[in-house]
Amino acid sequence: MEERINFDFNEVLEKFKNGKNLTGKDGLLAPLIKQLTEAALEAEVESHIANDVLSGKRNRKNGVNKKTIKGLSDGSFELETPRDRNGTFEPQIVKKHQTTISNEIEDKILSMYGLGMSYSDISSHIEEIYQVSISTATISAITDKIIDKVKAWQTRPLDSIYPFVWLDAIHYKIKDGGKYVSKAVYTVLGVNMEGKKDILGLYLSESEGANFWLSVLTDLNNRGLQDILIASVDGLKGFPEAIKTIFPKTEVQLCIIHQIRNSIRYVASKNHKEFMKDLKPVYQAVSKEAAEDALLALDEKWGKLYPIVLQSWNNKWENLSVYFKYPPEIRKVIYTTNIIESVHRQFRKLTKTKGAFPNENSLLKLLYMGMKNATKKWNMPMWNWNLTLSQLAIFFEGRLDSELKI
């Protein structure tokens, strides 16, 4: 190993007083960082060899490897990493393929980014904490590392069956071809056989349409998903048909909450309270028959005044009324897509300060961090899951046998 550079504190202090930078290219601290890092690596390899000797293995030092280590600013230096004769030494201070000694700062950057902080705010905080100036371009390059994780996550294998799946979209402005266009982010959330929630994928498209949902469902199928018992979706035209194309045995429940929201938009504000009072017996009925009686009464009273609203309920009734056949434990899980709205709220929390995004990757990496935040507490099964699963096994006889293992 080449001769160590002497680090003279007084000399460095004098140069610092004269305006020379501490960090960055040719910064005053670069020789010290190099010495401290190499000293730590020497201690690591000596400890490794000593442990080998104690366990009866023959081993010794065997020269060094050299590589260039970059900092978060413009500075870099050549680091000498010691080797051992047996080739079993795995350095921990600076790992084999690591090219920066700033992992701690990078982790802090990613953590702040995951909280929705802007690049300029992150830069200010890092400078305040570490006394290191980092450009927004550098922060962008660091957060771009998330993209590889997104791609790996997006293509991971899925379970063969998910009893419940919810599908919904959220919209953002993204720059495309020199102008900003609205694009839909499709979120797919499932509950596995253990009753635990899992986001199966995020997909981007220029519009929320049944054709693109078909490609989303095909991707899920290609990744190993073979069966969905019940899918809860919003009222998008053609959605149930798209699901049936890939998963023909799946029950499709349209979101009641979406239907109510869409209906009230066409009702005069002076009639909102009375209309909602008359609508409640429809979606809160104890049975499908009772709900249909209430819907008929609603039509008789309001049908001539609001024909579009009643026509929508009647046209979609087959998929709106699916939940009535199930007991309360299953009903309250499937009648709405609100469960996926909690994920979208996390997305909005992170993106609320962003008017638009320069490209799809800039949006996806932020949503991925939002997804990680939203799922941190998803380590317990859904409430009363064992009872729900046993009921599903009865309603969907034979389709859970291979997974229940009883």
TrEMBL record:
Entry keyword set: DNA recombination, DNA-binding, Transposable element, Transposition
Pfam families named in the record: Transposase_mut (PF00872)
Gene Ontology molecular function terms on file: DNA binding; transposase activity
UniProt record similarity statement: Belongs to the transposase mutator family.
General function of this protein: Required for the transposition of the insertion element.
Keyword Acetylation applies: no
Highest classification ranks of the organism: Bacteria, Pseudomonadati, Campylobacterota, Epsilonproteobacteria, Campylobacterales
The keyword DNA-binding appears for this protein: yes
Protein name according to UniProt: Mutator family transposase
Highest taxon of the lineage: Bacteria
